[in-house]
Write a structure and sequence with these properties.
Chains A, B: It holds the Pfam family Nitroreductase. The structure is a homodimer. By secondary structure, chain A is α+β, with helices and mostly antiparallel strands. Chain A has ten helices and five strands, in the order αααβααβαααβαβαβ. In chain A, strands 1-2-4-3 form a four-stranded antiparallel β-sheet, with helices on both faces. In chain A, α3 packs across α8 and α6 runs antiparallel to α7. The radius of gyration of chain A is 19 Å and the shape is globular. Chain A starts with a helix and ends with a strand. Chains A and B meet through α2, α3, β1, α4 and α6 of A and α2, α3, β1, α4 and α6 of B. β5 of chain A pairs parallel with β1 of chain B.
Chain lengths: ~210, ~210
């Protein structure tokens, strides 16, 4: 691709403003597990509510995994078949189970004194544990949206393109990949690969249409 | 700030991996409406489901606006009082009202032939118009999460820092700023300003904890 050879992979504006949804990839390109883990590690630097990091990823990269996914993403066969990997993103409704781990580690790393950890956990853990399902769903979807955006941008810094996909069988995806559907809320699929054809440009509403100044 | 003078404002990894939640800003710094519009324009290059762009922003920058907000964000008084602006992000449950506008513009700009526009609108508009509220809420929260992440990163490219805030009076925020609370779902507040003190580093769960490979 013409575009690609000019992409400076650390150029913020080229990465952000040059991003388009790419649906067709070079099927011969594999992304190593090491590199994909690096992409995910960078993506998960995204912030989240009380740092609960409720995002969960199923990286679907084998022919068997893709075959299973293809049935649940019938409008997106090109992405499934040509991408290096499809990432199914979920939000964990019980992310609070990691609260103790996360905050202990923050103390251990010197990011936070023990007293602050205890104050913070006392302040949010009970409300998180007793949060109505609907409110928790809001939180995990918003936080997962954050990580998905960062993931798509980081993928470009690694030389790949992506397509965020919302139209798939959300009611079946968790169970298909062995996850408890009541715990893991589907967020989106993200295809990742080396672009084989460019994405289309797309129009955005003017800022004044979507913004009020107060 | 020491950090700041070394920040190359187009360095992707410095922007992304150097981002921390900053809660305290130089209160003397104003962001012009032109620059804030530019930040929002760049943020809204984020993708969204069928390009409906359901994000809406209330940029709160006047003393009167901030006074109103302060009552609804009592755990975040420092951000409200010292930031250049607080951005209240909402998701529009009726974004489909812009479908015709958006897709006509895509045709006008040569991004899409007229027939494709008609096929696409016919394919998604009825289902969007009749989507159960709960499903629509999921869509607008995820899409708004995407734009919020891009907004926080773009703000850094402009030399500012941010803090995403989820703990505020979500049930009162729409009406307080004259929006229909049934139509506009609160997503988060984002404070924006010139950092006066550095944010804290924070721990992330290892990739293997949040990822399954299939």
């Amino acid at each position: 691709m013409e575009n690609e050879q000019f992409l400076n992979q650390n150029d913020f504006y080229q990465i952000v403003l040059g991003r388009r949804s790419v649906k067709s990839y070079d099927p011969s390109v594999r992304i190593s597990r090491e590199e994909m883990a690096e992409i995910l590690e960078e993506a998960t630097r995204a912030p989240s509510s009380v740092n609960m990091q409720p995002w969960r990823f199923v990286v679907i990269e084998t022919p068997e995994g893709k075959e299973k996914l293809a049935k649940l993403a019938r409008f997106n066969q090109t992405q499934v078949s040509t991408s290096s990997a499809m990432i199914a993103v979920f939000g964990d409704m019980k992310s609070v189970e990691y609260a103790e781990d996360i905050y202990s580690k923050q103390v251990e790393l010197g990011y936070m004194p023990q007293e602050v950890k205890e104050q913070l956990l006392a302040a949010f853990k009970p409300s998180y544990e007793n949060m109505p399902q609907r409110d928790m769903r809001d939180v995990v979807l918003i936080d997962s949206g954050l990580v998905c955006m960062q993931l798509m941008l980081v993928a470009r810094a690694h030389g790949y393109d992506t397509n965020p996909i919302g139209g798939y069988e959300k009611d079946q995806i968790a169970e298909a990949f062995g996850l408890d559907k009541d715990r893991y809320v589907p967020v989106m699929l993200i295809s990742v690969g080396k672009a084989a054809s460019e994405g289309y440009p797309s129009y955005r509403l003017p800022v004044e249409t979507v913004t009020t100044w107060v």
